[in-house]
Design goal:
By secondary structure, the chain is an all-alpha fold. The chain is built from 7 helices and no strands.
């Protein structure tokens, strides 16, 4: 609901205060949300057909769904990041990173610890790939502070893996 509210506010602002700088992010957000909603509707349709047929959706379909959904925040990082923030900080300052944790948490509903762990690893890998695409370059050793982008992005990736393992532990207890 918060994402919808943000989209509506951005749409109204873009319509009222038209500028080229505001137009591209709005179009990108609209396309991203449209693709996301279309994918979710297709998955819902597949689940409903499976239920009506009295069979389970294949494990491979669920696994593919987890991988695809966990990669969505990386796509948001790449396509919805503006140029106002220095490239090295873009993977750190984008709120799309927080969506990873939402998707990882939701994997507990599958009641399979391995699915949650997989989501954590996929989230970390897709986050690192998105960060690299945005211009991040890892520097794990040397005289840099832990708070520099070169090292903080790695810390974020580690936290995604840890979140997957914590979600896996919760899924195992449910």
């Amino acid at each position: 609901e918060a994402g919808e509210d943000g989209f509506v506010i951005r749409s109204v602002r873009t319509a009222l205060l038209f500028s080229r700088e505001g137009w591209y992010p709005w179009v990108a957000s609209t396309l991203f949300l449209t693709v996301f909603v279309a994918y979710e509707l297709l998955m819902l349709r597949a689940v409903n057909r499976s239920l009506q047929g009295g069979r389970d959706l294949p494990h491979a379909a669920w696994t593919a769904n987890i991988v695809i959904e966990t990669c969505l925040p990386a796509l948001a990082l790449v396509f919805l990041t503006g140029g106002a923030i220095e490239a090295a900080y873009q993977p750190l300052a984008n709120p799309a990173v927080l969506v990873y944790f939402m998707f990882i948490s939701l994997t507990t509903l599958r009641l399979d610890p391995n699915v949650s762990r997989l989501a954590g690893f996929v989230a970390a890998i897709s986050y690192l790939l998105a960060a690299a695409y945005l211009g991040w370059q890892p520097r794990m050793f040397g005289g840099t502070s832990l708070l520099t982008p070169e090292r903080a992005v790695g810390g974020y990736a580690i936290s995604l893996v840890v979140a997957g393992f914590i979600a896996g532990a919760v899924a195992g207890e449910i």
